[in-house]
Amino acid sequence: MWQQNRIVGTGLFALDVILGADSRRLGSALGGSTGNVLSILGALGWTATPVASFGQDIAGERLCNELQSIGADLRFVDRSSAQRTNVIYQHQLPTSRNGSATHRFSFACPCCGEKHHPVVEFDGSIVSKALEGQAQTDVFYLDRPTRAGYELAKSYHESGALVVFEPSSAGDDPELFEAILHHAHIVKYADERFKALSCDMPSSVLAEIQTLGASGLRFRSAATGRAWRQLSAFAVPQVEDTSGAGDWCTAGLVYALLQRCSRTWHDLRELELEHALAFGQALSSLNCLTRGARGLLKILTPAEILSLAWELCADRANQQGLLGAKQFGKLTQQKAQTLTLEGHDAPQVCCSAKS
After folding, report:
1. Number of domains within the chain
2. Which of 120, 161, 237, 311 places its Cα 20 to 30 Å from the Cα of 86?
3. Digit-coded pLDDT (tens) for 239-262
4. DSSP assignment letter at 342
5. What is the CATH classification number for the domain harbouring 206?
6. What Gene3D superfamilies does this protein's entry cite (predicted)?
């Protein structure tokens, strides 16, 4: 009997608020690395299971509604009146000469300037509830070195799940960071966050992946003899927004790896890893043609997204990784229609306003 793959995840969930170069509010959506990876895979047919705590506010309600819309399992999402739901402001910068839009992130309210640092830790009772209610999963994902993340990674690693750790920083507890590494199969990070990890990678880690922005990525594993191998990025005719690019790459990597017949991860071959990474890069490149961390899902159906990504991978050798005219034409045509209909989100409300 066919069964959906399940991903359990903890870490950064936030409401992403996109602001134009003129400070107009262009839209908002579920974000944060964990939020994006889970919601992408949920949209592609997986059962997404967040383990998190949100505030009892409008932002928290938005996150729950978006997760429900992709069929997420919300049994382990706590809502607390004592907590403020994380909000990230994505400021779009003026388009560069080559047509590539860039952005910057901020946790400071653009109205009053008050800065709210993201909250990713939560009560241990939520961890216990998750491990009792969902003792097994296909994949466990975390993007922050937290005590809750460690407990979940340890338990799910022991139960046979593929554990993916994608840290944005080493945190302030080196021992905790290293402990999580010992329970991770895949460790992925951006070169803008880490030029290199300060600690040795445990031999139990199957793959270490460093993304390099427009230059692609490099990876190493036992299958490569721990020597770095580089994969160039797919070339795209026009970059609208790079937000969420790394999250799409991770989601595609995990999606492709779970297509394997074997779930014995220690026999993962180099070619399998390379193909899965290429699929992740293809998804990432497609999303860069749209605005927002998951703009691609507003333009194409999940089936169309998967088909285009597999087609890109199959044609990579012939096209030197270039997004073909046929695919690009379809995307740009639908993008124009979507952005025209999308308009603008609700007016900006200061974070200090009652909600």
Report:
1. 1
2. 161
3. 888 888 999 999 999 999 999 867
4. H
5. 3.40.1190.20
6. 3.40.1190.20
